């Protein structure tokens, strides 16, 4: 990075600025937060409040003290690299700024007070005990599948199923010996047995007795949208339970019955049958969900949602370890290694790390789009699209088959979003063409509506975003303070609204007006139908 880039960059998930006068204990916090999240860079020698360039050249003792922070104030040590960037300080002298590049870590790091921080947006968030445990599960320092199941006993294990498994893998001892001597499936303690989560999920007679939502739900929708209430378009809703192997095989078999096939005469005179989705792809997307879901999240199940143009598989849990949406094709990390190894013995998991790459290759060979991965709250969504989506064809013609709404998305009193006053006032706000303003804001609100329909955001959040778009003109600069003052929001509500608007690319950061300042994006759009707007 150049000094110009350092000064102009906003503080984000992967970037922070700190004064040379920062206390070493305080510097440890963003370093730990970066290491526990996605990594990042700390620029030292610039005031994080005023962006005044202080430099580091006259503070040799202080610099050496700060360079020891990843070693002396982080437990365990954080791996970081340093770089000096030439600059001119606020006194006009040639100087340097220190960049400390922190790599994402497979370990959970804490400070000397045993506090764990994680980078969330532009803040270093202190984790609660439960959040810390979840981070340890995600990074593989601890595995939830190893956790003993309270009240479960050896009688909950299907010994005949264990026998079938050990016969398959060539284990010569008894099922009980296998459980006690391998992978911590069972432990004898005080004349009773402790049974692990993995043992219940893999070999249990009734895993749902202890993990009610450890199941797979298949939902088939008519059309390309997920509608609710009077417009509900669910045409199939099936739940699969049992141990992991039975649940997986039943879910895959049932999905096979829902796949469309096209048969035609090939160039060689033989009939060719093409399936809507390659068999390996639709199997692998379910295998991945069951293998890598976060079983510590008990409030929801794995859901396979089938639409006319795509299949979406939703699995509880974030991407584990260092796996990110951008590197998932070539990076492997197993949240549940014992479950993964078990499924490998049944040839569902071929080679570790092969699955997503092969999915991409098979979809490409079939002329289809690569799978899409997206994190929605605590659910990982994996989407594969068929040729209908790839060719961009409309699913519904002029008639709506009873599924398309004939009324606005938000009715006048829906969710309290619509005001009595007109959607946009007819003031100029400094723009030469008054008519262009509502047209442009209509386009921005169209983005918000789509996000509600896709369940990316709730209607409540959409109402907050709409109020900000209505309140501030395109040339107005605003941040949390201005939103709180104009709309009487609390700090959290104002901050979360800004974050959502930034994610939806409705606003853009503004330089030179202090930290966290934005303006509404101003573009020229075609006119949109306003009766769909909240």
TrEMBL record:
Is Translocase set as a keyword in this record?
A: no
Question: Any stretches that span the bilayer, and where are they?
Answer: none
Pfam families assigned:
HATPase_c_4, SLFN_AlbA_2
| UniProt-recorded Gene Ontology molecular function terms | ATP binding
Q: Which residues form the Schlafen AlbA-2 domain?
A: 11-127
Superkingdom of the source? Answer: Bacteria
UniProt KW keywords: ATP-binding, Nucleotide-binding
Q: Which InterPro entries match?
A: RecG_C_sf, Schlafen_AlbA_2_dom, Schlafen_AlbA_2_dom_sf
**Protein name as it appears in the record:** ATP-binding protein
């Amino acid at each position: 990075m150049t000094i110009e880039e350092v000064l102009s960059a906003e503080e984000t998930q992967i970037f922070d600025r700190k004064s040379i006068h920062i206390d070493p204990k305080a510097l440890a916090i963003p370093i730990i937060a970066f290491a526990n999240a996605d990594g990042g860079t700390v620029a030292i020698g610039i005031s994080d409040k005023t962006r005044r360039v202080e430099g580091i050249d006259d503070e040799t003792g202080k610099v050496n003290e700060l360079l020891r922070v990843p070693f002396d104030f982080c437990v365990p040590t954080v791996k970081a690299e340093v770089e000096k960037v030439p600059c001119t300080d606020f006194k006009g002298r040639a100087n340097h700024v220190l960049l400390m590049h922190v790599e994402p870590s497979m370990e959970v790091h804490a400070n000397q007070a045993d506090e764990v921080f994680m980078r969330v947006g532009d803040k270093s968030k202190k984790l609660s005990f439960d959040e810390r445990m979840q981070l340890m599960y995600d990074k593989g320092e601890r595995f939830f599948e190893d956790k003993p199941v309270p009240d479960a006993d050896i009688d909950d294990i299907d010994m005949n199923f264990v026998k079938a498994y050990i016969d398959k893998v060539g284990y010569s001892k008894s099922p009980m010996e296998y459980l006690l001597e391998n992978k911590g499936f069972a432990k004898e303690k005080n004349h009773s047995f402790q049974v692990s989560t993995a043992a219940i999920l893999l070999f249990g007679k009734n895993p749902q007795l202890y993990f009610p939502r450890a199941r797979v739900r298949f939902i088939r929708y008519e059309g390309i949208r997920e509608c609710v209430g009077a417009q509900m378009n669910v045409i199939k809703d099936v739940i699969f339970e049992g141990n992991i192997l039975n649940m997986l095989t039943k879910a895959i078999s049932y999905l096979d019955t829902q796949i469309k096939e096209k048969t035609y005469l090939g160039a060689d005179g033989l009939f060719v049958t093409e399936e809507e989705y390659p068999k390996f792809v639709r199997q692998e997307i379910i295998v991945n969900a069951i293998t890598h879901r976060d079983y510590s999240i008990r409030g929801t199940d794995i859901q396979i949602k089938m639409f006319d143009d795509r299949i979406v598989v939703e699995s509880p849990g974030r991407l584990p370890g260092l796996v990110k949406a951008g590197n998932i094709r070539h990076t492997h990390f197993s949240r549940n290694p014992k479950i993964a190894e078990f499924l490998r013995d049944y040839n569902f998991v071929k080679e570790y790390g092969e699955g997503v790459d092969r999915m991409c290759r098979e979809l490409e060979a079939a002329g289809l789009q690569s799978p899409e991965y997206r994190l929605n709250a605590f659910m990982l969504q994996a989407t594969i699209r068929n040729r209908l989506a790839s060719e961009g064809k409309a699913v519904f013609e002029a008639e709506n088959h009873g599924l398309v709404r004939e009324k606005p998305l938000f009715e006048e009193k829906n969710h309290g979003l619509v005001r009595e006053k007109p959607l946009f006032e007819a003031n100029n706000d400094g723009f030469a063409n008054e008519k262009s303003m509502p047209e442009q804001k209509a386009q921005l609100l169209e983005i918000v509506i789509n996000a509600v329909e896709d369940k990316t955001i709730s209607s409540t959040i959409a109402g907050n975003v709409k109020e900000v778009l209505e309140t501030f003109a395109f040339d107005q600069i605003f941040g949390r303070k201005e939103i709180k003052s104009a709309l009487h929001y609390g700090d959290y509500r104002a901050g979360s609204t800004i974050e959502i608007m930034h994610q939806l690319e409705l606003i853009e950061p503004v330089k030179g007006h202090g930290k966290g300042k934005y303006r509404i994006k101003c573009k020229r759009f075609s006119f949109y139908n306003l009766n769909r707007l909240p």
